[in-house]
């Protein structure tokens, strides 16, 4: 049994692929995890290879109840809002990163692939066969902390339209006949309703509300440098805004990481990465309608967006 498997990552495309060779699922908005079930323990490994078992106690406890000797489940840890949609901000609050009344017991793992089962490495099998075995391990009607990410038998364009109308981040398409291959490959494709990427936080502008943030100042990479790509002023509660300001003030600096002059700005060391949803890029190279979704960690393989 492998100690770790680098995950298969979906390539971003503009439209769903046509034809009967593709399976479609909801694109979940959370933390990508691999659950390793071993004879004497359960390990929960992030996309970046870090052991986060202690952060997901309900998922680890339920994995022990699946009745498997050895297995590796691939999935996404999420928290659902009142409409059944995954919400990254709610997940961060449940993990204790932002103020909340939610707890880790609300976190669900939607599993969508099975890489190893009872002594057998399944990665060379086609996706349809791995899926058949996964549905035996995690049935469609299973509730609790570990659930099945269902395949939707629909036309890709129509499924994307409905997903976007319901406020879902997007959809994922997986080729039925492909094996599981680590890295970003065209075996899996993602189609999003809005764009979403990670940007370095290089400072903030104070809010008129005492102790809060008015705008985060964001940067992308170009070569070996950081380039300012605009400010983000929405996506947080007042409590979250005050917490962010406290954190950023602790890493304030007099040497900005980008070429930017703002009279009221407080610049900080570019060590935190913000997950941001946005519509498009302006002609001036700035984010259009950005909204803050949370802080990504390096343990989740957070990478700053690279400008072409």
UniProtKB/TrEMBL annotation:
Alphabetized PROSITE patterns for the sequence: DNA_LIGASE_A3
Domain ATP-dependent DNA ligase family profile: 109-234
Gene3D superfamilies: 3.30.1490.70, DNA ligase/mRNA capping enzyme, Nucleic acid-binding proteins
Broad EC category: ligase
Xref: InterPro entries: ATP-dep_DNA_ligase, DNA_ligase_ATP-dep_C, DNA_ligase_ATP-dep_cent, LigD_ligase_dom, NA-bd_OB-fold
Record's keyword terms, sorted: Ligase
Pfam families: DNA_ligase_A_C, DNA_ligase_A_M
SUPFAM superfamilies, A to Z: DNA ligase/mRNA capping enzyme, catalytic domain, Nucleic acid-binding proteins
Descriptive protein name: DNA ligase (ATP)
Organism encoding this protein: Sinorhizobium americanum
